[in-house]
From TrEMBL, chain A:
This is FAD-binding oxidoreductase. Its cofactor is FAD. InterPro entries: FAD-bd_oxidored_4_C, FAD-bd_PCMH, FAD-bd_PCMH-like_sf, FAD-bd_PCMH_sub2, FAD-linked_Oxase-like_C, Oxid_FAD_bind_N. Keywords: FAD, Flavoprotein, Oxidoreductase. It holds the Pfam family FAD-oxidase_C. Residues 30-210 form the FAD-binding PCMH-type domain.
Length: 442, 491
């Protein structure tokens, strides 16, 4: 079956853009599952024809960008065809005065930012994997970073999309203007879809003026409770930080080391405030943080290279590279409940190693990382804490052999039956990313 | 095809009425023409249609009861909030049961530290902010109709507002929903935190214009009030100068929270009502608002002032008191209430263009109006590129309605031609559904229909909306002379 698929795929993309070499295919393996063949389409239409060919043969399709987020999701049940979008690269429409940019899905975020930066603009997104990740991959994986507190998430920035559907059409949703209520907002079908709804071909974002240099205000406090008290006080203040993080001692050591800064106290929790924008505003943030930190803890202000490196490390904390062979969780819930989620992650009992915790304390998203051996107990304890808080917990990365033994997705969400029906409408043959989505959705 | 051919026929009206009365009691089921006529309009006043029945459920359970009764009788359901919508989304030219959510107006839960509130769909937009502003919080989407429009209607239309520029539209502020599906099942969507796993059903339902189900609870995001705010008026000689100032203010990076344009004809209409002291001879007035920590406000305001001066502003005024600030905003938000002074009727557009196209498209809009012998009034969200050209006219004058429709259609086409869209915040409804093929291919629309079919396979929810139909807006409009313009329109 797959031999025939490779022939058909070769007809569609040309021999130069088909990968059948076993070593090359091994580098495209997802959770150890090696694809039978990989194709680099040169257009949305080619991507659509590849999926049609796969559909006719009942072959499983894994869309892929730079492969940075392939650790998300379940172990693929099958991997007959990888559709790699990296040939679909480059900006297609950019008028700086519009504050809108359209680029093909395989464009690395880094390249996009470099071009926007030439006009003192940027896509205000600082996601994990942001160095190599493609914009299509970032959308499909719904990747966001610490700065979402002030600038929003990728969901708030994506205003239009072109997608090759598993049923063979190339469609667009949304448009190229910053406000648009014409028709359904189908862009939402593809954000966080892990490729299940089709291959993203092109995306249009609203972008912002680049805010210039920022400053880090790092406060170290003795306990999680003290960190929570401080983040709550900041959230109740008039401050408008671009990011607000709470890091446990392990995570704090991890990110300060990356910044070349010595953690003031190896056992302290850290509260990290990112101030960006007008100088007057940054000064105010530093001054008020001194007052808020007061007797609670020690304060340090970082600028320049250390500041930049620190926030890169914060953004990359959820990346598998930061926790080799470990298990990484994401949990979300009511914003002010982050400390309950953190305590759930850290109080699993008799851990084999440390459980590092970094919370986006202003948005209620928390990342926890532990050794593989602690995966199941942390999963249970964090999952229970998340449910009790009205939130959720998922496993973002784990050694493939462990994945089947972990509750990767947690309890089913509301609307699961609707999700099933949507999956059926958009992927009637069920060829897309089998095994990857939760609750049997793919 | 005639509209009459498409009208839904109710087989057994008596049995349906009885079934609905069993759910709601007889006082919340309206069948008498005298009661029904109150529901023949929404904010799109040029369109009228009388529903077969009107019901007023008071809870999710009662909505389920209504849906089940309708389903058994295979009668369409048309959800309605406050009826301020501007695209005819809350009226039904093909009959059916109009479901008013006006009685579901309780704020169920407020949680300031978690920055959210759970509200029923009939809650008035401004009432959410009123409930939390004493504690220093607010609900960001603020359509000009915010003192009358409902949260449920905002969800249906993905409504914007005058502070959209900085804070986004409804979809950026809805965290979760309770939805009654046309099969009578109740789904709780979202609401478990940011980046929730699974498909983003909440995001798909927001902006679906009541065509996927009936929303009975909404979890909204609350925002912390900014410490300082400065409201300014830039008084310009021409729209072109004001447009360039808009572009330069955005480029300065200070992220203003509002950038609204008011043209000369609007000032003529609004000044005798509001008395804000606006000059009657200014070509365009920009209403600019900056917010943030107090320490940075002077600097932000200074940058705005500087940019305006560079663009030949005649004068920059700064609101010195809260009263003055409200007066500035009254000139903007009350603009369309004052339109009755210009003509008995009006027709309103909601196109959006890429921001750099604004000056050119404004010239085209004026030229189109001139060519058709019409005037055009412009009050709009300049920062977003969201135009609101409004054509005052007299429906009683022979041929004038046709000219207005023709001109409006040309304006929309001009906006689409430069990469714009049909509607920025008012919705498609039955007013612009037949223009959808201008911006979407058959495949694009088919993909949207798949979404519809997943939620509503039998097309019982607000049918005849959003997607193209065999009957044009012009035919719908031609059915009856519109009522006179009154102080009931906001954009």
């Amino acid at each position: 079956m797959t031999g025939d698929l490779a022939d058909r795929a070769r007809e569609i993309v040309g021999a130069a853009h088909l990968i059948t070499d076993q070593a090359a295919l091994a580098s495209l393996a997802v959770d150890g599952v090696r694809p039978a063949v990989a194709a680099h389409p040169g257009s949305g239409e080619e991507a659509a024809r590849l999926m049609t060919a796969a559909g006719e043969r009942g072959a499983a399709v894994l869309p892929r960008g730079a492969g940075v987020h392939q650790h998300l999701g379940g172990v693929p049940a099958r991997a007959d065809l990888v559709i790699d979008t990296r040939r679909l690269s480059g900006i297609t429409d950019y008028v700086p005065a519009d504050y809108v940019v359209a680029a093909r899905a395989g464009t690395p975020l880094r390249d996009l930012q470099a071009e926007l930066g030439r006009h003192t603009q940027w896509l205000p997104l600082d996601p994990p994997g942001g160095g190599a990740a493609t914009i299509g991959g970032l959308i499909a994986a719904n990747r966001n970073g610490p700065r979402r507190l002030l600038y929003g998430s990728i969901r708030d920035m994506l205003i239009g999309i072109r997608v090759a559907l598993p049923t063979g059409e190339v469609i667009k949703a949304g448009g190229k203007v910053v406000k648009n209520v014409a028709g359904y907002d189908l862009t939402k079908m593809f954000i966080g879809s892990l490729g299940s709804a089709g291959v993203i071909v092109e995306a249009t974002f609203k972008i912002s003026p680049f805010p210039g240099d920022g400053q880090t205000i790092l406060v170290t406090v003795p306990t999680r409770a003290a960190a929570h008290e401080l983040t709550t006080a900041i959230m109740r203040s008039y401050l408008l930080p671009a990011a607000l993080e709470a890091a446990d001692p392990h995570a704090l050591r991890h990110v300060t080391k990356a910044a070349g800064v010595t953690a003031p106290d190896p056992n302290a929790w850290g509260v990290l405030v990112l101030a960006e924008g007008l100088a007057e505003s940054r000064v105010r943030h530093v001054d008020e943080m001194r007052a808020l930190a007061g007797s609670r803890g020690r304060i340090e202000v970082l600028e320049g290279a250390a500041h930049t490196a620190l926030w890169r490390a914060v953004a990359e904390f959820p990346s598998p590279d930061a926790h080799p062979a470990g298990v990484i969780f994401r949990a979300g819930g009511p914003i002010a409940r982050w400390a309950d989620l953190a305590s759930g992650a850290q109080e699993a009992g008799a851990p084999a190693g440390p459980v590092g915790v970094l919370a986006h304390a202003g948005t209620g998203v928390l990342y926890a990382a532990c050794a593989a051996a602690d995966g199941p107990s942390v999963a249970a304890s964090l999952g229970a804490a998340a449910s009790a808080a009205g939130g959720y917990a998922v496993v973002e990365a784990a050694p493939p052999a462990l994945k089947p033994h972990l509750p990767l997705w947690g309890p089913p969400p509301g609307g699961l039956e609707l999700m099933r029906r949507l999956r059926e409408k958009f992927d009637p043959r069920g060829i897309m990313v089998p095994g990857r989505l939760g609750w049997g959705l793919s | 095809m005639q509209l009459a051919d498409l009208r839904h026929r109710i087989e057994d009206r008596t049995a349906l009425t009885r079934a609905l009365q069993e759910v709601l009691g007889s006082d919340r089921v309206f069948t008498h023409p005298a009661d029904l006529i109150a529901y023949e309009y929404d904010g799109a006043q040029v369109l009228t249609a009388i529903p077969d029945l009107v019901v007023l459920p008071g809870s999710t359970e009662e909505v389920v009861g209504v849906v089940n009764a309708a389903r058994r009788h295979r009668v369409p359901l048309i959800p309605r909030g406050a009826g301020t919508g501007l695209s005819g989304g809350a009226i039904t030219p093909i009959g059916g049961i109009l479901v008013s959510l006006a009685r579901m107006k309780r704020i169920l839960h407020v949680d300031l530290d978690n920055r959210c509130a759970v509200v029923q769909p009939g809650v008035i937009n401004l009432d959410v902010t009123k409930a939390v502003e004493g504690s220093g919080y607010f609900y960001a989407p603020d359509p000009s109709s915010q003192s009358a429009c409902s949260i449920g209607g905002n969800v249906a239309n993905n409504s914007g507002g005058v502070h959209t520029l900085a804070f986004g539209v409804t979809t950026n502020h809805v965290l979760g929903l309770t939805l009654v599906l046309p099969d009578g099942s109740v789904e709780r969507l979202g609401g478990r935190g940011a980046d929730e796993p699974g498909l983003d059903l909440t995001g798909l339902v927001v902006g679906s214009e009541g065509t996927l189900g009936i929303v009975t609870e909404v979890t909204v995001r609350l925002m912390r009030r900014r410490e300082g705010v400065r409201t300014m008026l830039g008084i310009f000689g021409t729209i072109a100068e004001a447009s360039q100032a808009v572009a330069d203010i955005i480029a300065s990076g200070i992220a203003p929270t509002a950038l609204e344009m008011i043209d000369q004809l609007t000032v003529e209409a609004v000044e005798p009502v509001v008395h804000a002291g606006l000059p009657l001879d200014a070509g365009a007035i920009l209403l600019i608002e900056v917010e943030g920590v107090c320490d940075a406000i002077d600097r932000s305001a200074g940058i705005v002032d500087e940019v305006c001066r560079k663009n030949q502003v005649r004068e920059v005024r700064i609101a010195r008191t809260e009263e003055e600030r409200h007066l500035y905003w009254a000139s903007r938000k009350g603009a369309f209430g004052a339109m009755g002074r210009l003509a008995p009727n009006y027709y309103l557009n909601d196109a959006v263009v890429p921001r750099s196209q604004l000056p050119a498209i404004m010239r085209q809009v004026m030229e189109i109006a001139r060519r058709h012998g019409l005037r055009v009034v412009n009050v709009f969200h300049a920062g977003d590129g969201n135009l609101h050209p409004l054509i005052p006219y007299d429906a009683a004058a022979p041929g004038e309605s046709d000219r207005v429709l023709k001109a409006s259609e040309e304006m929309l086409a001009a906006c689409v031609a430069v990469g714009g869209t049909l509607s920025g915040e008012h919705g498609i409804g039955i007013e612009k559904n037949n223009y959808m093929p201008w911006i979407f291919s058959a495949s694009d629309l088919d993909a949207q229909r798949r979404l519809k079919a997943a939620f509503d396979p039998e097309d019982l929810m607000n049918p005849f909306k959003v997607f193209p139909t065999p009957v044009s807006c012009g035919e719908l409009m031609a059915r009856r002379a519109p009522r006179l313009a009154a102080s009931g329109l906001w954009i």
